[in-house]
Write a structure and sequence with these properties.
197 residues; alpha+beta; Alpha-Beta Plaits; four-stranded antiparallel beta sheet
């Protein structure tokens, strides 16, 4: 036989205690996880709102950045930083013509000219020529100084210099024979076409 349940103040105190225990277990098992889930969701929503605000600000800057990029592209074209030519062969011919112009101004004889294979260099193509030339040493120095000041800028590489003594003509007794590679850059049209698509 089960003992009788307490009655009176004692029974009421026991009932209130049991109710408090059930409420504490219910709070710990259900309410606390729901509050934590709510706080996590609220933090996630706040992060997403901040991300949306940043992306909106960046999207608002996009037209201005495109305009600035177009201005810089046009300024670069006007500044003559790249070789002219619709293709590599035309650009190489323009480069060769520029070098021949500088060489003739310095009294240099170009023995041979060879176009070098073009190579991609990021958004550009490197166009080059190899020259074999004969000149007094001072003429070679004038050519190199002329190349340094020319626009578009050119790059000199792989210089090989040999001095030849000639007995027949005392005025030009020492002639410098040199092999030199000169490079310039032109825009890579394949990159431009890919960017436009």
């Amino acid at each position: 036989m089960t003992p009788p349940l307490p009655t009176g103040w004692r029974g009421r105190g026991l009932a209130i205690g049991l109710l408090l225990v059930v409420l504490a277990v219910l709070y710990a098992a259900v309410i606390v996880p729901l509050l934590e889930l709510y706080a996590d969701r609220e933090a996630l929503i706040d992060r997403q709102h901040m991300l949306v605000e940043k992306q909106t600000a960046l999207a608002a800057q996009l037209p201005e950045l495109k305009t600035r990029a177009a201005e810089l592209r046009n300024a670069a074209k006007d500044d003559k930083t790249l070789l002219d030519g619709d293709n590599d062969a035309i650009a190489a011919a323009a480069l060769q013509g520029k070098i021949e112009e500088l060489a003739s101004a310095g009294g240099i004889t170009i023995g041979s000219t060879e176009s070098l294979p073009s190579q991609p260099q990021g958004p550009f193509r490197r166009i080059g020529v190899r020259l074999a030339l004969s000149a007094p040493y001072s003429g070679l120095i004038k050519l190199l100084a002329g190349i340094e000041g020319v626009r578009p800028p050119l790059i000199v590489d792989n210089i090989q210099i040999h001095t030849v003594t000639r007995q027949a003509s005392p005025a030009n007794a020492e002639i410098t024979e040199a092999s030199i590679e000169i490079y310039g850059l032109r825009g890579d049209t394949t990159t431009d076409l890919a960017a436009k698509r």
